[in-house]
Amino acid sequence: MTTPVRLSAIDLVTYTPGLAALLVDAVEDGAGVGFLAPLPIDAAAEWWAAQGAEIRSNRTIVWITSDHEGVTGTIRLRLAGMPDSRHRAAVVGLLVHRRARGNGLARELLATAERFAAAAGRSLLTLDAPTGSGAERLYKRAGWIESGAIPAYAADPSGVLRSTTIFHKQLG
User: Fold this and answer.
1) What confidence score (pLDDT) does residue 38 get?
2) What is the pLDDT of residues 77-115, one digit of tens each?
3) pTM
4) Shortest CA distance to 76 belongs to which of 119, 31, 19?
5) Which residues contact residue 80 at a Cβ distance below 8 angstroms, ignoring those fewer than 6 apart?
6) Dihedral through CA 169, CA 19, CA 73, CA 2, nearest 10?
7) Long-range contacts of 65-69 (CB under 8 A, 24+ apart)
8) The CATH number of 5-125 is which of 1.25.40.10, 3.40.630.30, 3.40.50.2300, 3.10.20.600?
9) Would 136 disulfide with which of 69, 92, 129, 171, CB 3.0-4.6 Å?
């Protein structure tokens, strides 16, 4: 397992192809991450390239892991910026390539985002996951509290509307 590294907007240019391949892999595997299948690699790369403004402004913090074959995982932490919500952040886009699963990488990425959030003075984190998914089980094992589920919240990669479970975690 590699240690997660924070991605800068400059690094994003270098890692966009690997991040795009990771996103395509996740969608092909059925992950509910906002995209429908099939996701063309150029559309995935375009989406990642567009994240540069969020990264430059520090509204979104991104970590990646990689090995000799390329990018193996990523997680994004979106910092709430309004005056009444600067105590919280949302964990978004936790992805681990199928070839890198089963070695604790998802837990390490999640822990990295949690540690950063706590150090940045964020005391509340939120996230969502498709109900019944492996991601949902991961978050429960990592101490996240289920806030509730919303039926027919988002389509899965095949276009079928699925329930989404909302989670929260108090830090510190």
Assistant:
1) 98
2) 999 999 999 999 999 999 999 999 999 999 999 999 999
3) 0.96
4) 19
5) 86, 87, 88, 89, 90
6) -130
7) 65/1, 65/2, 65/3, 65/4, 65/5, 65/100, 65/105, 65/108, 65/109, 66/2, 66/15, 66/18, 67/2, 67/100, 69/99
8) 3.40.630.30
9) 129
Backbone angle region of 132, left / alpha / beta, with phi > 0 → left and psi within -120 to 50 → alpha: left
Beta bridge partners of 61: 77
120 DSSP assignment: T
Tens of pLDDT, residues 47-84: 999 999 999 999 999 999 999 999 999 999 999 999 99
